[in-house]
Design a protein that fits this description.
Blueprint: E1 7-10, E2 13-16, H1 20-26, E3 34-39, E4 42-47, H2 50-65, H3 67-74
Antiparallel strand pairs: 1-2, 3-4
Length: 75
């Protein structure tokens, strides 16, 4: 699916309006939270899952602490 979305001003911030069919595909509605994940292919939006968010925070802490080791393993 390819779709153009327009950025709009929301108070002092900038936001994007998600069409109803996209909200249905994400299974979210007004007031829900989304996760923004950076992937090699771009940005991915998913419904916010507290358990997954906590796991990602732990993984990022480990990757920051063990950066040198992970670089050596990648070689």
């Amino acid at each position: 699916m390819t779709r153009r979305l327009k950025l709009t001003t929301i108070g002092n911030s900038t936001g994007v309006i998600l069409p109803k069919d996209l909200l249905e595909k994400l299974r979210v509605s007004r007031g829900d939270e989304l996760m923004v994940l950076e992937t090699p292919d771009g940005i991915r939006l998913t419904p916010y899952e507290p358990e997954f968010a906590e796991q990602m925070e732990v993984a990022e802490r480990i990757m920051r602490r063990r950066r040198n080791l992970l670089q050596k393993l990648a070689q």
